[in-house]
Design brief:
With 257 residues, the protein is an alpha/beta fold. The chain is built from nine helices and ten strands. It has helices at residues 43-54, 79-96, 109-118, 134-141, 144-149, 172-178, 183-186, 207-216, 237-254; strands at residues 2-10, 13-21, 28-33, 57-62, 101-107, 126-130, 151-158, 161-171, 194-199, 221-226. It is globular.
Length: 257
């Protein structure tokens, strides 16, 4: 298995990305999108990238503008820019090679954004939404402090250093931009195979919320509930394997593996 770290030009500098592939050019591309303020190097995306690469995909995972080691400011981290970032990643990869199949997928906010992007770009062949539906969670997280100060403090553990955190001061404008998009409506515009993954113990994006989005989506589609798994499954190697195995199985069922 090969891995390559790259920098991709975007609207506000360069995006940090990692490509995983098995050394063969099979014409299949997967673009993987992190959840809200999450890192491309967390075990959920890193593990999924390796699993997809084992099945012939060239899998690229990246950090959106203004987060982690991608250039730009946190004030530029919003859904509108995230969608542009995906387009920049896709254009970059298509400049390197021809891909007959293009998968877009992600976890939580990354799952929402993947579905919205798939609704807007006809080049996308299939989509994977792992625990999407974070709009409702975002609304629940909206509090008086965010509106009073104009930003919200959020913390994430550093990949590989779970005892150390990084702080993000997320401006209220991020929330305002995010609320312009409704994944429950956008998913009806997706006309390619879609996979939905829910965690049985997920309290952030509950099974019922994900099922509602699934019900609004078009065929062909698949839905799986992973037993004993919560929203932050990335912290447990066995749970990561369970989720990834379900994704691979459903992709095989849909003929997109």
């Amino acid at each position: 298995m090969e891995e390559e770290k790259i920098r991709i030009p975007s609207s506000f500098g360069k995006l940090s990305a990692v490509i995983n592939y098995n050394g063969k050019k099979e014409g299949k591309l997967a673009i993987l999108c992190p959840g809200y303020l999450n890192s491309k190097d967390y075990e959920d995306l890193a593990g999924l990238a390796l699993a997809l690469a084992e099945h012939g995909y060239t899998a690229i995972r990246f950090n959106p503008t203004g987060t982690w080691d991608s250039e730009g400011d946190i004030s530029q981290y919003n859904s509108t820019q995230y969608l542009k970032d995906i387009g920049n990643v896709l254009d970059y990869m298509l400049g390197l090679s021809h891909f007959k199949r293009i998968l877009i997928g992600g976890h939580s906010r990354g799952g929402d954004i993947s579905l919205i992007y798939a609704a807007r770009d006809s080049r996308v062949s299939c989509a994977v939404a792992i625990m999407p539906g974070s709009k409702r969670a975002t609304l629940q997280a909206k509090n008086d402090d965010w509106e009073k100060t104009g930003f919200q403090k959020s913390y994430r553990d550093i990949p590989g250093q779970k005892d150390k955190n990084v702080q993000f001061d997320v401006p209220l404008s991020q929330l305002e931009d995010y609320l312009k998009y409704d994944v429950e409506k956008e998913v009806g515009k997706v006309h390619v195979p879609v996979i939905f993954i829910a965690g049985e113990l997920d309290s952030v994006c509950p099974v019922g919320t994900i099922r509602e989005i699934f019900n609004r989506s078009n065929e062909p589609k698949r839905f799986a509930i992973i037993p004993g798994v919560g929203h932050d499954y990335r912290r447990n190697a066995n749970e990561v394997r369970m989720v990834n195995a379900a994704v691979i199985r459903l992709m095989d069922e849909l003929g997109i593996l």
